[in-house]
Write a structure and sequence with these properties.
membrane; Glycosyltransferase; mainly alpha; 316 residues; 0% strand; globular; 14 helices
């Protein structure tokens, strides 16, 4: 058991991101009358319980093996996964908003505090250390672009100017990091196999950006259409690249498939709610079905590899 705690990965929080995204689909579909609220209620408490369990495990690792935690925190790639803790809190805050706004606020404030720390620390770490272009992968989007999530429930819990601060910084770094990403994948060697699933992260920034923007300006304008259409473009691009994902060995990075698909599903459902354009409803249903299938497959694979003792082991 000690070895399992010692090698418990920070990437475990990506499970919470994916399942929280599924909960938000159930919440949105429930609001629109597409699903009964039972789906949302069950998913909300299930993912909350799992978040507590994962947090206890990582806290035990922090207490029992602090050197392992610091090694992850100083790792040029794994440091980018620490904000999955704060992003998980923010997603749970969004999920609880329709259930209990007080609980949502309790989750949002520490989520924002941690997100601020992780984002500033990651960006300063990038600046102060020398990197090779091969170190870059889409997981770098997580620390800075994760700021875009703050306004989704933050509009309800704090002055709008605070949410706009995080929205602005997140969208800025989306553009900057996407340019680096494109240069990396076009002109340099391919990503390692375990990072191939992180290509799906490209969907999340414009999809979440669209949802956040609608919180500020609930209007179907040029900027909102730009973000939604960019997210849908990346869905089509990744669908075209489908063969690249079907033969991958399982890694915990497979959970990178999940949250972006749930984000674009919620975004298209919101687009239908805002515009009444029926095509968005059908797209949302199709994407929601795909997200449910992907999450089911990834969850099954995760449990299967846990039973084989292939999770929580020492990695390179």
């Amino acid at each position: 058991m000690k070895d399992k705690i010692k090698y418990f990965p920070i990437t475990a929080y990506t499970v919470i991101m994916g399942l929280s995204g599924l909960t938000l689909i159930f919440s949105k579909y429930g609001q629109l009358g597409w699903l009964p609220d039972t789906f949302y209620n069950v998913a909300l408490w299930a993912v909350s319980s799992l978040f507590v369990a994962i947090s206890i495990m990582y806290l035990l690792k922090r207490v029992m093996f602090p050197e392992e935690v610091m090694a992850e925190y100083r790792h040029p790639i794994r440091i980018n996964f620490f904000p999955t803790i704060s992003i998980s809190l923010l997603l749970l805050s969004i999920a609880f908003e329709g259930y209990n706004k007080t609980v949502s606020a309790w989750l949002w404030w520490p989520g924002v505090a941690l997100q601020t720390w992780f984002a500033l620390n990651a960006i300063s770490y990038w600046i102060q250390h020398n990197y090779q272009i091969q170190h870059f992968n889409p997981a770098w989007f997580i620390p800075a672009v994760g700021n875009v999530l703050v306004p989704v429930s933050g509009i309800e819990h704090a002055p709008m100017i605070i949410s706009y601060f995080y929205f602005s910084s997140g969208m800025f770094f989306w553009i900057v990091l996407f340019v680096i990403f494109l240069y990396r994948v076009v002109f340099h060697g391919q990503l390692a196999e375990k990072f191939i699933p992180t290509f799906f992260i490209l969907i999340a920034p414009p999809a979440v950006g669209f949802i956040s923007y609608m919180k500020f300006f609930p209007s179907w304008d040029g900027f909102s259409m730009f973000m939604l259409m960019m997210a849908l473009f990346f869905v089509l691009l990744l669908a075209k690249m489908g063969k690249s994902f079907t033969k991958l060995r399982f890694f915990m990075s497979w959970w990178a498939f999940t949250f972006p698909m749930t984000a674009i599903t919620v975004a298209t459902a919101l687009a239908w709610e805002m515009t009444g354009i029926h095509e968005f409803k059908y797209i949302s249903w199709a994407l929601g079905a795909m997200a449910a299938v992907i999450i089911s497959i990834v969850a099954y694979k995760t449990i299967a590899h846990m039973r084989k003792g292939e999770i929580c082991v020492m990695e390179e």
